[in-house]
Design goal:
The structure is a single chain. This protein has 254 residues and is of the alpha+beta class. It is built from six helices and 15 strands. The strands form two sheets. Strands 1, 4, 5, 6, 7, 8, 9, 10 and 11 form a nine-stranded mixed sheet that branches. Strands 2, 3, 12, 13, 14 and 15 form a six-stranded antiparallel sheet that branches. A hairpin with a 2-residue loop joins strand 4 and strand 5. The longest helix has 25 residues. The mean pLDDT is 86.
Length: 254
């Protein structure tokens, strides 16, 4: 007896970005690292979801990961990292007389480099630019790095993905300095997020901040804020928006 051939399995991976988030910003300050991202997911040009976090503390690891790009791929990356971090922690625990040591941000960054490059070589990439914040396992200093969808890595004192690479990175480059305090770093990130809200049609004024604060060899504090709205009062009252254009009464302004 012969049976008809079964239908081939449907695709289970992302062939093109569908539901996406835009820029993630990161900056190193004197005691740690701050990340910023809005909470908007876009379905093409439609604002699909308004309150979705794109900054995550990785369980069993000393780091925070943020992502721009396809959100389902970001979820898959976080699941992968948490499984890997738990595996590493339990392996170290069994080999070192019950003294566990979570993976550091620099280790997660290096692991993601291999993952993203491997997926790219299989023509099945994770459609994300990932930002990793935490502590360098060798120096104990604040760590900030980025990995793109083909496995290219960058480690810097300030990082911006997506449209932020064009609009926010010049501002970060101009204002950053090694002794930047947490308050100054937060104000700078909020200013950059305001610029992106005005200039990026996939951005939102509702954002989150995440903090990884270093304390010696380990990062002692990992906090992701609740979403909050930027203060945009007076933002559209700039003279270039209000003044008349073309010498015509009332033309070109609000």
């Amino acid at each position: 007896m012969s049976f008809p051939p079964t239908a081939s399995a449907s695709r289970q991976h992302t062939t093109r970005p569908t539901t996406t988030g835009t820029s993630v910003l990161g900056i190193v300050y004197d005691k740690g690292v701050l990340l910023a991202a809005d909470t908007l997911l876009s379905y093409g040009s439609m604002a699909k979801a308004q309150g979705v976090p794109r900054l995550k503390v990785v369980s069993h690891a000393n780091c925070i990961v943020g992502a721009s790009g396809e959100y389902s791929d970001f979820q898959a990356v976080i699941d992968l990292l948490e499984r890997k971090a738990l595996e590493e922690e339990t392996s170290v625990l069994s080999d070192s007389l019950y003294t566990s040591k979570p993976m550091s941000a620099s280790q997660i960054w290096n692991y993601l480099r291999f993952v993203m490059y491997s997926k790219r070589n299989k023509f099945d990439p994770y459609w994300n630019d990932l930002v990793v914040a935490g502590t360098d396992s060798t120096t104990g200093k604040p760590f900030l790095g980025m990995i793109d969808k083909i496995g290219t890595t960058v480690q810097e004192n300030f990082i911006a993905t997506g449209y932020g690479g064009y609009m926010a990175l010049p501002l970060l480059r101009e204002k950053w300095r090694p002794d930047l305090t947490e308050g100054e770093a937060r104000a700078l990130l909020e200013d950059c997020m305001k610029v992106l809200f005005y200039r990026d049609c996939r951005a939102s004024s509702r954002i989150q901040l995440a903090k990884a604060e270093a304390a010696g060899a380990e990062a002692s504090t990992f906090i992701v804020s609740d979403p909050y709205d930027l203060d945009m009062s007076g933002g559209w009252d700039a003279p270039s928006f209000v003044e008349a254009k073309g010498d015509l009464d009332g033309d070109g302004g609000w």
